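Hello,

I think I submitted the 3,6-anhydro-alpha-L-galactopyranose job twice by accident. Can you confirm which output corresponds to this input? Input:
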Amino acid sequence: MKRRKYPLLLFVLVLFWACNTQNNSPDNKIEKDHTESTIEISDEQLDKLGITDRNHISAASKRALQWPTDLGNEWFIEFSGLKPLKGDLAYEEGVVRRDPSAMIKENGKYYVWYSKSTGPTQGFAGDIENDKVFPWDRCDIWYATSEDGWTWKEEGLAVARGEKGEYDDRSVFTVEIMKHEDIYYLCYQTVKSPYNVRVKNQVGLAWSNSPNGPWTKSKEPILSPADNGIWKGEEQNRFMVEKKGDFDSHKVHDPCIIPYKGKFYLYYKGEQMGEEITFGGRQIRHGVAIADNPKGPYVKSPYNPVSNSGHEICVWPYNGGIAALITTDGPEKNTIQWAPDGINFNIMSSIQGAPHAIGLNRTADNEKEPTEILRWGLSHIYNNGDYQSIMRFSSERKTMHTAKGETK
Ligand code: AAL
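Support: Only one job matched these inputs. Its output is below.
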C-alpha cells in the first residue's frame, strides 16, 4: 500500500506544478485572457481593422474595436500655418492683443473682442502690487471690426477693469461673445488684486443692446472656482496643498456660453489647486455650468469635468450635440471631440497641433459638416515673451494620403 501512494502523490505534485508554471507564463496569460474574452468581432470589423487572429486581441485592438463603426474621416482636418492680420490688429511692439473671442457679423462687418494690455511682463518675483505678472495681467477688453477678416480697425474699449476693491479690479481678459435675442453678452475672466500665484480667478459677464456698447457689467462674478481645496501653509506656492479639491478649485478660465437645448451652457477651463504634470502634460480639464437665463445663475454640472485634457475653450453646436477642439494639455490634446448631449464627449479625430486660443467664426454654417466652422478663424501667437498678437488660421479636410504623382 505504502509503495503505491508515493508515485500517486508525486504525479499530483508534478501536475500541480506543471499547471502553475503554465499559468504563470506570459504566453499562457495572454491565451487565458483571450479565451475568456467575450468580445464579439464581426468578419467586417476584422477585415477593416486588419486584425490577424480573432483569438488573439491586443489591448490596442480592443480599443479600436470600441470605436464607432460608422466613424469615417469627417472630423479629420489639417491646419495650415497662422497668417498675420492687417490694419490695427497687425503686431505692434509694446502691446499685447490676445485671446480673441469668436467673430460675429453685425452691420456688414465682423466683430471681435480680445484682451489688451501694454508694457512688458515682470512676473511674480518682484513687486506684484505694481508689476505686471502675466501678459494677461492689467488687461481691458477691446474690440475691432473688419469687412474681410484680414484688415481690422480697432474700435476701442468695450469693458474696463473694475474700481479698486471690486472682483475685477486687476484684470478683465479672455473674452467670448454670445448674441441671444438681440442682446450681446461678453463673458470673460476676472482677477482681483493682488495678483499672486494663489489668487482665485473668476468669470464676469457684461451685456449690451449693441455690439458697440455701452456694456453693463454684472455686480458679482457669474462663476467661481470650487471652494473645496486647501492650501498648505502660507507660502505663495500653488503646488503645495493639503487637499487639491475639484478640477476647478483654483481657476475658472476661458468661459464660452452656448445657447443649447433652451438653456445656456457655459463651458470653461478649470485649473486645480496643486496642479500636477500627468502623462499628457499639465492637468487641465474643462467643465460646464448651465443656466436657464443668459445672466445666470449658472450651476456647475455634476458630471464635471467633462474633458480630461484641453486648454482654451473652443466649442460649437453640431448635429444636436456640442463639438470641442481640445488643445495644448492632457493625454487627449490635439483631438476633436463631440458630445451628443453637450456633456459626454468622445474623440472623433486626432489632429496635428491645433492653433491656440481660437476665436471661431460664428457666421460659418456649422451644420454643413462637422468642422466647417474651423475653415478659418482667429488665434494668437507669442511674438516674444512680452507681446502677443492676433493671427488668422485656416484648415482643410484631408481625406486621402497620396505620394507625389499618385492618382487620387
Ligand atoms: C489663455 C487662457 C487664459 C489664461 C491665459 C489668459 O490662453 O487659457 O487667458 O488665463 O492663457
